[in-house]
Structure formats: structure tokens, C-alpha cells
Design goal:
- Helix 7 packs across helix 20.
- This protein starts with a helix and ends with a strand.
- It has 27 helices and 16 strands.
- The protein has about 600 residues and is an alpha+beta fold.
- The strands form two sheets. Strands 1, 2, 3, 4, 5, 7, 12, 13, 14 and 16 form a ten-stranded mixed β-sheet that branches.
- The longest helix has 23 residues.
Length: about 600
């Protein structure tokens, strides 16, 4: 027996489950309320208010408000500054002109089209553009111009012998008749006969007659003429192309117009520049233009412009608005009120802060804010849980066949010497937690026997088991279960963590012939060997047993009180959850059923 368990019970360190569950429920409710309050706009507003009330700024403002008076105040200084500005000569002159009809006339007419035209023409005439255009216009003459050059080039070509010949023959009847003869039978015959042999006297005689023909004689006279030679040289020449281009160019209206312009002695008087100059002179003599120009240069208008956008005038209007406002008048009265603090918004906020600070939800929030009571809820999350409240076992979480059985046979089987067979869920009762029931009843199952294999066998007892198998494995974290501790020595009931093999394993709790928490392993002979804490002297009842796994380090707690620590590197791996009851000695019918009660199971991992 363990003196440690006895001592913990004796000193009251193992608290009742009801106390723990009530405290957890209360803490969970408080945490939910804490989170709700923490996320609320009300708390956000209160914290802002609290920060303001407790700030140096607020305290300073309160002190300032309580010590304020009109004499020497901002308001008094504003009033004095306004009166000084109001008496200023510059500002008085500004208002005199600002309200005058002359200024109104000036501002209305200055933007008129007439003034816009005058300013544009004045700039045009005085800034050099006018003189530039005038010189440019007066410098444009026909002599030496591009136009004259083109005209002279045309005249030179037009008077040349080649172009006189070309112009005379191009399209003429003489040239057409000359070319037409070349196509006649007579001319073709002539060309054919001129190369005949002297021995062909008939052909030679005929050739002599054709040679004397008037048309043929005329053809060769023209063909050998200088005029036709010049014509042929001109046709297709670059000069002909240039000649035609120049002839077309100087015949255009644009050329003729430009030629007339360049030869015009009064072209400047006809120009836009001259018209603009005359319009400028006319506008400069206009009475309205004279008024605008004179007003614009006046000392009164200069003062007006200087003051218009000045800081003093802006300040004058700013102070005038302030002093005429109800706020200023009320502020003056307020500064003279000895109970001014109680009438401020700050005082109302101060009272509001006191009221809200006493609200139950805020009192509770600030109670927990700096405590570590919620550390577990904040740092751990549930990754697996079951309260077995359904009518049947949740098949998405649990299997009723061991991992080995599912791999080998697909159903539970027994080993030689086992007194019970595990049924596939028949011995499990859910609805108010889980009860694994050992019953004395005949049942047929299979036993693994060498070398025969699985042999059908009749058993006197049935029991049940649950396992998460591949549905869930626990890595580092906490396994916690509420279960009833009521050992029956003939039945080994255990809740444990294991890999695919049943050993080694971590016993969350084992009760029956041996009652312990710790680690079970197989020795060299294949027998189970336990190492852990004996809990045989634990009082019967309901307990919350937990096991925290951190790598190869394991810690057991009973009703939140640490009772055992142990290390094992073999079990530093993902582990399945398992619970079962195994008959290890004969039971009478009156001793059955033996129930292993598990109210709920939870697995946590760090967030």
C-alpha cells in the first residue's frame, strides 16, 4: 500500500470530485463571462474612460479647471487682441475700401472680357511679340524668296531650246503623223528592202522608188532634225519632271496668293498684328480701362491687397467669430463660476467612472485580469472528448475490437488462459457515462492456440473493451477521465495508453487484484511487470484521474493533486486510448455483473 495516497487523503489534499467539478464549471462560466466582457464594447469604453480618468492629463485638466478665472484667461487675451486689431489703421482702411462701390466696380470689371482683351493685347504689344511679327511681315518680299527661286527655275527651263522643242512637239499632229508612218506597210517594206542584195534587181529598183517617196523623205528629214533630238532627250528626263512640278506649283492659287502677298507694299497694314495694335490703342484710351489701371495702382488698393490675405485680418475675423459666439459668452460666465468643475463634462465622466467601476461584471473581470486562474483554459485546448451521453457508443471515436484483433481476425479473440471473451459492444452501456460490464454468461469465442491457430472455444464470462485505435492517438498532452474506483480482485479493470502492442503501456489507472498507476511492460519471460504507485488504500468512489505526457516524461494526478512521475523512452510516441475489464479469477453469479464506470474522457494539447 502507498503511504502517499493515505497521507494525501488524510490531509484533505485529494479534494472531492464534486468540489473540483463545481469549481471547474464555475471557472469555465467565469472565463466565458470574462471573455465576453473582455470583447465587449462596454469594457473597451470603460478602459478608455479609466485610462482618461487616471491620466496625468485628466488630473492636470481638473486642477486647471478648478483654478481658472477670467482675469488673465485665454478669453480675456482674445478680447484684448481683437480690440487692438479693430483699432488698427491698416484694417480700418481695408474695411473702408472693402465696402466701397469702386472696389465692387473694379472687381466686377477686372474680370470682364474687355479687360481680358486689353491685358492680352498689352502683353502682346509690350512683350515683343508685336515687333517680332511686324519685322517678320515687313521682311517678307518676293525678291530672294523661295517663290521667286521656283518661278525663275521654271522660266529658265521654259525658255530653253529643249523645252521649246518639247512644248512644240508634245501632242502635235506632226509628231503623231511621224510615228504613225512607222506603222505603215510602206515604211516597213522600205526597212525590209534597204538591206537586200545588189543581185536582187527588182527589189533594189522597188527600194529606190520608195526612197524617193515624199512621205518617207519627209520622215527622215524630221527624224534627223535637232528639234526631234531635243524632244527625245527631254522626254523621261529629270528636268521634265522638275519642269512639270514647277509648272503645276506656280499655277496654284496658293502660289499666286503668296506671290501677291510678297509683292504687296501695304501687307503690314493688312496683317493681324496691325489690327491688334490698333485695338490695343483703342482699349488703352477707354475710360473703364483707365479706371481699372488707376485703381489697381492706388495706395488704398495696395493696402487692401496687403491686408486681405494677412495674418492680422484672418486673426481679426477669427477673433470676431469667437467673441460673438455663444460659446465665448458662456465661457466667460463659466470662468467666473466658483462651482465650474461640477458643471463640466469631465466631472460627469468622473462620476460615470465610479458607477461603472462598481458593475459586477467589471469587478469580476478585474479580479481575474491579473490572476493565473484561467491559465489552463487559455493555454490548453480539447482535442478529444466523450461523455458517453448517446444511446450507443460513438463509432467515430471508439472501436470495440482491439487493434490486434482488427488486424488479424476482424473480431475480438482470447489468448490461452483467458477466462472471458470480449464482445463487440454488447457489454458496453452508455447514456449516463460508460459502463464496461463483466457478466457471468456462456459465450462462444475464438482462442489463439499454436499451432492450430484460432480455435472456437466456449467461455463462462463476457466483458467489453473500447479503444480509439487509428481514430485518435494522443501525442504530448493531458489525458483526463472521471471514473469510479471500486476494485474487484477477480477483475482487472484498466484505462491505459498504448501503441499497436498492449505492452509497454501507460496505466491511467488499473484496479482489481492490483491497484496502481504507472507503466506496465513485459519482462524477459513474457510476463507483465508493473512499475508505478500502489493506490490500494484509495477510498472507493468517483475520481478524476489525469496523465500528462511530455515526451518521455509522464505525470499522474488524482483530483488535480500530483501523485506520481515516471519516465519511459519507449512510450515517447503517439498512443491509443484503451479501457477494458478482464476476468483473472473465477466469479460467482452473485458477484456479477462487475461494472467499470467511466463518466467522461478528455484529451488536451497545448495551443
Amino acid at each position: 500500500m502507498s503511504f502517499k495516497i493515505f497521507s494525501l487523503q488524510l490531509t484533505g489534499k485529494i479534494k472531492p470530485v464534486s468540489t473540483i467539478e463545481n469549481r471547474r464549471k464555475e471557472l469555465a462560466n467565469d472565463y466565458a463571462e470574462f471573455q465576453q466582457t473582455e470583447a465587449s464594447e462596454e469594457l473597451k469604453a470603460f478602459l478608455e474612460l479609466d485610462s482618461w480618468i487616471n491620466s496625468d492629463e485628466f488630473k492636470k485638466k481638473k486642477k486647471e479647471i478648478e483654478s481658472l478665472k477670467f482675469a488673465g484667461s485665454l478669453e480675456e487675451n482674445q478680447l484684448k487682441e481683437f480690440q487692438r486689431l479693430k483699432k488698427s489703421a491698416r484694417i480700418r482702411k481695408y474695411f473702408k475700401l472693402a465696402n466701397s462701390s469702386d472696389l465692387s466696380k473694379f472687381e466686377n470689371e477686372k474680370k470682364s472680357q474687355k479687360m481680358a482683351d486689353f491685358y492680352a493685347l498689352s502683353e502682346y504689344v509690350k512683350e515683343g511679340q508685336f515687333e517680332k511679327e511686324k519685322k517678320e511681315i515687313q521682311s517678307q518680299v518676293f525678291k530672294g524668296s523661295v517663290e521667286e527661286k521656283h518661278w525663275l527655275d521654271f522660266r529658265r527651263l521654259d525658255k530653253s531650246a529643249a523645252f521649246r522643242a518639247y512644248n512644240e512637239l508634245e501632242g502635235s499632229e506632226k509628231l503623231k503623223k511621224h510615228k504613225a508612218l512607222e506603222q505603215t506597210d510602206k515604211f516597213k517594206k522600205y526597212n525590209r528592202l534597204k538591206n537586200v542584195s545588189e543581185q536582187d534587181k527588182e527589189s533594189k529598183k522597188e527600194f529606190v522608188l520608195l526612197k524617193r517617196d515624199a512621205e518617207i523623205k519627209a520622215y527622215f528629214r524630221f527624224e534627223k532634225s535637232k528639234k526631234l533630238k531635243l524632244y527625245h532627250e527631254t522626254v523621261g528626263s529629270h528636268d521634265l519632271t522638275k519642269y512639270n512640278e514647277l509648272k503645276e506649283y506656280i499655277s496654284t492659287d496658293a502660289f499666286k496668293k503668296q506671290e501677291a502677298f510678297l509683292k504687296d507694299k501695304k501687307k503690314f497694314e493688312k496683317s493681324e498684328a496691325y489690327k491688334k495694335q490698333q485695338e490695343y490703342k483703342k482699349l488703352a484710351a477707354d475710360s473703364l480701362v483707365k479706371f481699372i489701371l488707376k485703381f489697381e495702382k492706388s495706395a488704398a488698393y495696395k493696402n487692401y491687397l496687403d491686408v486681405k490675405d494677412s495674418f492680422d485680418l484672418k486673426r481679426y475675423f477669427e477673433l470676431e467669430k469667437i467673441i460673438d459666439s455663444d460659446e465665448f459668452k458662456q465661457q466667460k460666465v463659466w470662468l467666473e463660476d466658483k462651482k465650474r468643475w461640477e458643471k463640466t463634462e469631465e466631472f460627469k465622466k468622473e462620476q460615470q467612472h465610479k458607477q461603472e467601476q462598481a458593475k459586477p461584471e467589471f469587478v469580476k473581470y478585474f479580479k481575474y485580469q491579473k490572476s493565473n486562474d484561467f491559465d489552463f483554459l487559455k493555454n490548453w485546448e480539447v482535442v478529444f472528448e466523450d461523455d458517453f451521453a448517446g444511446k450507443e457508443l460513438d463509432s467515430t471515436r471508439w472501436s470495440t475490437s482491439s487493434a490486434a484483433a482488427e488486424k488479424l481476425l476482424g473480431e475480438n479473440y482470447a489468448l490461452p488462459g483467458d477466462l472471458n471473451i470480449f464482445t463487440n459492444g454488447k457489454n458496453l452501456l452508455t447514456g449516463k457515462g460508460l459502463s464496461i460490464s463483466v457478466k457471468k454468461e456462456k459465450s462462444t469465442g475464438k482462442v489463439w492456440q499454436m499451432p492450430a491457430g484460432f480455435v472456437p472455444t466456449e467461455f463462462e464470462y463476457t466483458s467489453g473493451l473500447i479503444t480509439t485505435g487509428s481514430k485518435f492517438v494522443m501525442e504530448d498532452g493531458i489525458l483526463e477521465a472521471k471514473l469510479s474506483y471500486n476494485p474487484v480482485k477477480q477483475v482487472a479493470s484498466s484505462f491505459y495508453l498504448a501503441g499497436d502492442e498492449t505492452a509497454p503501456r501507460l496505466n491511467l489507472i488499473e484496479m482489481g487484484a492490483k491497484n496502481n498507476v504507472g507503466i506496465s511492460r513485459l519482462d524477459g519471460k513474457g510476463k507483465i511487470e508493473n512499475s508505478g504507485l500502489d493506490i490500494s488504500n484509495l477510498k472507493k468512489g468517483s475520481y478524476i484521474v489525469s496523465l500528462e505526457k511530455s515526451g518521455a516524461s509522464f505525470t499522474w494526478k488524482l483530483n488535480e493533486t500530483e501523485i506520481w512521475q515516471q519516465n519511459n523512452s519507449e512510450l515517447n510516441k503517439p498512443l491509443q486510448l484503451n479501457a477494458s475489464s478482464l476476468v483473472i479469477e473465477e466469479l460467482s453469479g452473485s458477484q456479477t455483473p462487475v461494472n467499470f464506470q467511466i463518466d467522461w474522457v478528455k484529451c488536451y494539447r497545448k495551443k
